[in-house]
Amino acid sequence: MDSATTSTATRPPRGSDCPSSPPKRVALFTGAYNHIADGVSLTLNRLVEHLEQQGAEVRIFAPTVDDPPIDHAGSLVSAPSVPLPGRSDYHFTLGLSSSMRRELEAFDPTLVHIATPDLLGQQALSFAQSANTPVVASYHTHFSSYLKYYHLGLLESALWSYLRRFYQQCEHIYVPSTAIGAALEEHGITDGLRLWQRGVSTDRFTPRRRSSAWRQVRGINDNEVVVTFVSRLVWEKGLDVYARVIRQLEDRDIPHRSLIVGDGPAREDLERRLPNTTFTGFLEGDDLARAYASSDIFLFPSDTETFGNVTLEAMASGLPTVGADAAGSRDLVNHEETGLLCEPGNVAAFTEATRRIILDTSLRTSMGRAAYRRTQDFTWDAILSKMNRYYDQILGRSVSSSSERARTRSLAVH
């Protein structure tokens, strides 16, 4: 596919850049932007929208599809890509095409942000180094945790070696949680780490969205306890554990209703394994908010998350979480206060934790209220403003370095 640019914003004139405020032209490279609706793409779209509202120019280089599931923010340049075998919803980028390179050179970025350390990210890094442009990266996918799902554990050492070489060339590495930051440090990625958490729209995701009518349409009575999973339906999200927990609850006659929100390649198999579960398919916006708020417990066994956007949305909706004691949940869920954390993959532990909250109405209510209170600190405005400040730190240093080089050249001439 050849490169093509689509835009939702008009570029301000270059001459408007003020000397006291370094021009902010950000080139963002990512493997997920609008061709797939996942946590990475939604977060990056929010970031771009915020940056443009603050006066920055942003150009995004990412794979595209003819019928994208979400509208994109900013000016998007289509990156050549191919679907991954067996996972056509994910695309592997093929690097910078000649037309993309011309687009990039014409844009003349003052900062390069790489969100995926793939071939496109590697070539973007090389371009930035040749142009003496500062580079930052954000860490969205904990690649090593995915290897076990594809029986590729032998590649872990080589993977970390590659990631070390890649990220050591970036001035900042933005991590979504302290747990992920610690994991990177354990593997020798120590310089430039900065915390960039995720926010939640607390005006949308709120207990006030709870709807008896929404439940009734799906055959759920007001007195039934709904155990909910929300995510893309791929096995690395802990779906096997979820399915086994639900089956054990059913076998033990623990009263509950199972609800799965989302879509993906694992859905057909899940529907066979969980015939009593209600599947809503993909939901977004207010429909998604109602699904959360009309549930009672969020069961999310995934141990591959870097942050856990869905966990934060569930908590904002007033749900206690039963989650994996891993990076995605550990920074959000306070064990025994806002939910319960279990050993990753331990079906018995997840079953007992879920059973406990199902049967204890008082505990379920108190944990849900505590979860709601905890999320009030995670506003998108504060989270995205923090990233803007990180950019300003880098650009300020870049301008200072350029000024110093110019001053040195001037002194040498005179």
Question: Could you outline the blueprint of secondary structure elements for this entry?
Answer:
Layout: E1 5-6, E2 25-29, H1 39-53, E3 57-62, E4 75-78, E5 81-84, E6 87-93, H2 98-107, E7 111-114, H3 119-130, E8 135-138, H4 143-146, H5 156-167, E9 172-175, H6 178-186, E10 193-195, H7 212-217, E11 226-230, H8 239-251, E12 257-261, H9 267-273, E13 278-281, H10 285-293, E14 297-300, H11 309-316, E15 321-324, H12 327-330, E16 339-342, H13 347-359, H14 361-374, H15 380-413
Helix pairs in contact: 1-15, 8-13
Can you put this structure into words, describing what you see?
This protein is α/β, with parallel strands linked by helices and 414 residues long. The chain has two domains: 5-199 and 379-413, 3-Layer(aba) Sandwich (Rossmann fold), CATH 3.40.50; 207-377, Glycogen Phosphorylase B (Rossmann fold), CATH 3.40.50.2000. It is 41% helix and 17% strand. It has 15 helices and 16 strands. The protein has helices at residues 39-53, 98-107, 119-130, 143-146, 156-167, 178-186, 212-217, 239-251, 267-273, 285-293, 309-316, 327-330, 347-359, 361-374, 380-413, and strands spanning 5-6, 25-29, 57-62, 75-78, 81-84, 87-93, 111-114, 135-138, 172-175, 193-195, 226-230, 257-261, 278-281, 297-300, 321-324, 339-342. The strands form three sheets. An eight-stranded mixed beta sheet has the order 1-4-3-2-7-8-9-10, sandwiched between helices. A six-stranded parallel beta sheet has the order 13-12-11-14-15-16, sandwiched between helices. α1 (39-53) links the parallel β2 and β3 (57-62). α1 packs across α15 and α8 (239-251) packs across α13 (347-359). Mean pLDDT is 88; it is low at 1-19 and 403-414.
